[in-house]
Structures are given as structure tokens and as C-alpha cells.
Specification:
Layout lengths: L26 E7 L5 E7 L10 E7 L23 H6 L3 E6 L8 H4 L9 H15 L3 E11 L1 H12 L5 E5 L5 H5 L7 H6 L7 H6 L13 E6 L8 H12 L4 E2 L2 E2 L5
Parallel strand pairs: 3-4, 3-5, 5-6, 6-7, 7-8, 7-9
Antiparallel strand pairs: 1-2, 2-4
């Protein structure tokens, strides 16, 4: 509780009293320019015992949606749009970058709809520019980069692996790998026509060209595939397809399945 002037603050709850904030890593809002000059915002969580003279491994975390959004909130739990343990990672000396790329909520209608008909386009550029920025300001070691995401974030993770080999490891969580089979099996039947400009029988080219499965010959990054067996939004077949394709490519893999819906 605070006075209107903000000159006096009084604590009236005991929520998370056993976890003092000094035991959590610092997170801060950062901004950078994407490839086309547009300003992109995100959150950078520094390693718990951060030292400015050191360079750290960087984890790039991608939210679901697409219209999810990372916010400045408690990092000690699990966020539904990106169910990864941020505070735990920071305590193990990782820096964590969470990007609100084009398609995210909270930046206006034009920003949110900017990826329609361009999935894996400018949103991917926003991600890579964010990673470049953290390297350029001396925090991230370019030889120790990881990438992870869930749901649509899983899609962007898989897509990124088809476009670059800069990451040393990846986690694809409940990700879309094949737009055509996804369109015919998801419970969210309006998703693909909205973002691809029509049904797959009318827009087959974009369904194919923006599906990670169609670029699996470019994958080389060791990959962890995670998926819930009862997921109705992104059905388990998406994980099966990616797993079998990468196995044929002899990509280093791990693929645990969970007997519950994905988050």
C-alpha cells in the first residue's frame, strides 16, 4: 500500500515473505533495433552473481501465442506462456533473454498483426537481433547460446534451428512442426487461416515454406523435444514428425513425452 504521493510505502501482505528479493536474480527491461530498424522490447535476467567483466551463456526464451507477452513479474515460479524456470537458470550462471517480438500483445494492433502471413519472418529477425544485442553489450558469450520455447515459442525455436546454427542446444516445447497436419488436427482451427491468409488448400506455398519440417535438412543443433501426450492445441503428432525427421538426419535428440496436456 502506498500514499498517493508515493512518499510512503507500507507492506500489508506476507506473500512470498520466505523468499526475499535479494535471493532472486535481477531482471530489467531492455530495447534493441531489429533488422529493419523497428524497436523491440524484452526482459533480460542477469545471472544471480553477475560480474560485469565476465561473459555468460545466454538462454533465449520465446513465449507462446503468438499474442503472448513477457512481463516484469515474479521469476521464481512458472509462467504459463513459457513454462521454464527463470530464477533457477539464473542461479546456475545463465543470462536469460525474453523477447516480446512482433506478434506480441501490448504494443498496439499493428505490432500484434505484423506477423500475419509472415510467421518465422520478422519475428525471427527480432529474436536474432536481441541475441546480437546481448552479445554486443558484453554480457553473452556467442559460443554459448541456447534457445527454448513452448507452443508458438516451440514453433519459433524449431524454425530458428532451420535458419541458423548459432545455438549449441535447443528445447522445442509443444511446438508446431508441420503447418498442414497441424491445421487438420488442432482444436484451434482458425489459427492457420488467420496467420497464413487462408486454408492450406489455397495457400499451400506458405504452409510449406514456413513449416520447420520442410527445412529439416538444415538442422544440426542438439535438440530436446518436449510435449504433452494429451495436448489438443498442438497435438502430439507434431512432436512425432519432428522427432522422426531429425532422427533420420542423425541430429542429437532427446524426446520425453508427458501424460498430460501441454501448458
Amino acid at each position: 500500500m502506498a500514499t498517493i504521493s508515493g512518499s510512503h510505502v507500507k507492506r500489508i501482505t506476507q506473500v512470498n515473505r520466505a523468499l526475499p528479493v535479494e535471493f532472486l536474480a535481477q531482471s530489467k527491461v531492455i530495447r534493441w533495433r531489429s533488422a529493419d530498424g523497428l524497436e523491440i522490447e524484452g526482459l533480460l535476467t542477469l545471472p544471480f552473481n553477475y560480474q560485469s567483466e565476465k561473459k555468460y551463456p545466454l538462454l533465449l526464451m520465446i513465449h507462446g501465442g503468438p499474442p503472448g507477452v513477457f512481463q516484469q513479474n515474479f521469476i521464481g515460479g512458472v509462467n504459463p506462456i513459457s513454462p521454464y524456470f527463470i530464477a533457477t537458470s539464473a542461479s546456475h550462471d545463465y543470462a536469460i533473454l525474453r523477447c516480446n517480438v512482433r506478434g506480441s500483445t501490448g504494443y498496439g494492433e499493428n505490432f500484434r498483426t505484423a506477423i500475419c502471413y509472415d510467421l518465422g519472418g520478422k519475428d525471427f529477425d527480432d529474436l536474432m537481433a536481441g541475441v546480437d544485442h546481448i552479445i554486443d553489450i558484453g554480457i553473452a558469450d556467442p559460443e554459448r547460446l541456447g534457445i527454448m520455447g513452448w507452443s508458438f515459442g516451440g514453433y519459433l525455436t524449431a524454425w530458428s534451428l532451420s535458419q541458423t546454427d548459432r545455438f549449441k542446444a535447443a528445447s522445442v516445447g509443444a511446438g508446431i512442426s508441420d503447418f498442414v497436419s497441424f491445421a487438420g488436427t488442432t482444436d484451434c482451427t482458425e489459427f492457420m487461416p488467420l496467420y497464413c491468409g487462408g486454408e492450406f488448400w489455397d495457400k499451400l506455398s506458405i504452409y510449406h515454406t514456413r513449416s520447420p519440417i520442410c527445412h529439416v535438412n538444415k538442422f544440426s543443433t542438439p535438440t530436446l523435444i518436449q510435449h504433452g501426450e494429451k495436448d489438443v492445441r498442438v497435438p502430439i503428432g507434431q512432436a512425432h514428425q519432428l522427432y522422426h525427421a531429425l532422427k533420420q538426419r542423425n541430429v542429437r535428440l532427446s524426446a520425453p513425452l508427458f501424460p498430460m496436456p501441454a501448458m
